[in-house]
Amino acid sequence: MKTLIIVGHPTPDSSATQQFLKAAVQDLSGVKWHELASVKGNFVANEERQLLQKSSRVVLQFPLYWYNVPDLLKRWQDQVFTDINQVSLAGKELGIVVNVGKAVQEFRLGGTVGFSLSGLLSPLAAWAKHFQMKLLPLFVIDRFEYQNLKQQQQLLIAYQQFLELPQPVTFAAQEAWFLDKLKAKVDLASGRQRQQLELIMQQLQEKTTKLADLQAVLRPIRKDDQIHGN
Amino acid sequence: MKTLIIVGHPTPDSSATQQFLKAAVQDLSGVKWHELASVKGNFVANEERQLLQKSSRVVLQFPLYWYNVPDLLKRWQDQVFTDINQVSLAGKELGIVVNVGKAVQEFRLGGTVGFSLSGLLSPLAAWAKHFQMKLLPLFVIDRFEYQNLKQQQQLLIAYQQFLELPQPVTFAAQEAWFLDKLKAKVDLASGRQRQQLELIMQQLQEKTTKLADLQAVLRPIRKDDQIHGN
Question: Which keywords are on file for this protein (chains A, B) (predicted)?
């Protein structure tokens, strides 16, 4: 699977959020980072379309400006998709990574914004529907600048998984993904660091096995519950 | 009242719809037609803000591109409203005049678009809410190029009334508006044409009087109905 990230921030170099996400993508071999700001003036529609054709998952990534996509991303849409017969996106996945400067809770009914993010971004859903793309669950980054280190670490993992894992994401796939990443780190490490990482990996694998056992016990109970349950 | 029309079409000269609407505005003294395409490159934010300050009704007028505002209108929003403290729009009215290339009925649930125009344009509603503007009912132009002469005449009147009449619009206000316009035409006419227009005006006034009489009769009946009714 190839993931293409269309970065719609007009000045990504000045954005802490975009720089953080860019760093998160460095290690990911199947992911292409494509900044629209680098071809700001006029897009070469054909080049943009070729990039899209090569990808199986397209991610539109942008900050919410005036409750909508930034001008730059809209320009890309308006300029690249003029003759819609020139591009076939059917069956590809469309991900949306949006970061907001207002607390996410303000977007609910009665909040200071009062319009849901899913509603505000529905033009992109209509766009995905038009091209018969499969829309992935919205990925929202809630005020990156207020996040502490732990929240940022969680964001990093969630973001990488959003880019790499097949959808819909299962817990088992998340676990396997984590062990894979850890194994790659172990292979690169040496000495004391390697010993520590191997210990962590061993513990994680043991917990994974325990969890699998527990799930095996739970499954018949849940089945029983479904038959007799309320 | 002063109405400012922000024309967000990137090439209004090539748009039959925009040219039709532009002609409809020629006679209206309190309405300013402002094409964003004329200052395409970079907006002088201060000049744009001053135009807004002078108006009591702001109308955003644009074709729907990819289920959203055109790039040009978004650029205007992103460039002019950077420092939101520099502009006060509180209490002003915001009108939206949108023309669509797909049949309006396709925007309902289960239609080929499947997303409502009110939903797709909710970023503008959130924007209006942000600036404490009063949002007027959405004015939709359904595929202008398919409209026959009669439909275009109806559109012309509805559009002019949307720009000029106090909101919410009443039937009485629409009648008075129509008589005013007719009177202005009579004053300019002469000879046989003037006679004909005077006759039309006379008939319209008679009908208006009859209608007022009928409403006077209906009012107590409706009142009675409200008291005793189901």
Answer: Oxidoreductase
**Rounded to whole angstroms, how far apart are CA atoms B85 and B131?**
10
CB pairs under 8 A between A and B: 90
C-alpha to C-alpha distance for B27 and B5, rounded to whole angstroms: 14
Same domain, A78 and A122: yes
Range of weakest confidence among A38-47, A216-225, B123-132 = A216-225
Q: Which of A74, A79, A115 sits opposite B125 (nearest CB)?
A: A115
Statement to judge: residues B102 and B198 lie in one domain: no
Domain end: A167, A197, A216, which one? A167
Compute the half-sphere exposure of residue A83: CA atoms within 13 Å on the CB side of its CA. 4
Residue A177 in any domain: the answer is no
What are residue A30's phi and psi, to 5 degrees? -90, 15
- Closest partner residue to A66 among B10, B70, B127, by Cβ? B127
Of A81, A120, A130, the CB nearest to B123: A120
Does residue A106 form part of some domain? yes
Residues B105 and B36 in one domain: yes
pLDDT above 70 as % of chain B: 94
pLDDT tier at A41, thresholds 50, 70, 90: low
On whether residue B56 sits in a domain, the answer given is yes
Claim to verify: residue A47 and residue A134 sit in the same structural domain: yes
Measured CA to CA, the distance from residue B225 to residue A180 in angstroms comes to: 75
Closest-CA residue of chain B to A41: B41
Q: Are residues A87 and A196 in the same domain?
A: no
Domain containing A224 equals 185-228
One domain for residues B10 and B102: yes
- What is the spatial distance between Cα B186 and Cα B198, in angstroms, rounded to a whole number? 7
Respond yes or no on whether ipTM tops 0.85.
Answer: yes
The H or E element containing residue A99 is: strand A93-100
Positions in chain B short of pLDDT 50:
none
* pLDDT at residue number A84: 67
Question: Confidence band (pLDDT; 50, 70, 90) for A65?
Answer: very high
Residue B110's pLDDT is what? Answer: 96
Please answer yes or no on whether B71 and A71 come within 8 Å at the CB atom. Answer: yes
Residue A144 in any domain: the answer is yes
Residues of A whose CB is below 8 A from B78: 10, 65-66, 70-71
Distance, CA of B122 to CA of B174 (rounded, Å): 28
Say if residue A28's pLDDT is above 60.
yes
The contact set of A with B (CB < 8 A) is 10, 65-71, 74-75, 77-79, 81, 113-115, 119-120, 122-123, 125-127, 129-130
Residue A229 is predicted with a pLDDT of 58
Q: How many domains does chain B have?
A: 2
Residue of B nearest to A63 (CA): B78
